[in-house]
Amino acid sequence: MVMDPIFLPQLTRAPEQTENISVNAPLADLASLTPVQGQIKVVHHGNYLQVSATAETIVTLVCDRCLQSYNHRLATQTSELIWLQEAVLDDVAEGITFTGDLEDPALTESLPPNGYFYPEDWLYQQLCLSLPQRQLCDTKCPGIVVEATAETEKHSLDQRWSILETLKQQLQNGAQ
Asked: Domain limits at 101?
């Protein structure tokens, strides 16, 4: 299923300037085991959009400790304000530095008032932001278990230190 883009001037003519979208399909760019299920609500408030969503799916992740694959229920319940204004190109191309002003329009999401809102792309971004930073199959995951044997310790020695290891053995044999 591809969610159709919403033409913003057309949204102003919708009942209560609102569009509700039911989601029950996989997203094109999100590798998930189950379809994404949920709701997206887009409300036009004149000079901004209020977008909210509740969605969930199951994805396969790789544990950061043991490198095993595991299934994870990915869920999001989020909302965002998107300002409707023409793109501001003043100093963006030349690179501006952050001055600490949180009201800077370059720090907010915006769309042109006569443009489109892409709900599938927006939902994909929200789900990606909901992925856990530390991906652990279990809080008690021990990680990769490496059994140390004399043979593996011998091979794990960096070859650049082999002469020093030989000297160490000679000193031990001479001391006896």
From this structure: 6-147
Q: Classify residue 165: in a domain, yes or no.
A: no
Q: What b/e sequence results for 150-159 when a residue is b if at least 16 CB atoms lie within 10 Å of its CB, and e otherwise?
A: eeeeeeeeee
The total number of structural domains in the chain stands at 1
In sequence order, what are the residues at sequence separation of 6 or more whose Cβ sits closer than 8 angstroms to the Cβ of residue 17? 11, 43, 44, 45
Question: Residue type at 144?
Answer: I
Residues in the chain, how many?
176
DSSP per position, 70-126: EEEEEEEEEEEEEEE-----TTTTT-----S-TT-GGGS-EE-TTSEE-HHHHHHHH
Task: Give the model confidence (pLDDT) of 57-83 as tens digits.
Answer: 999 999 999 999 999 999 999 999 999
**pTM as predicted:** 0.71
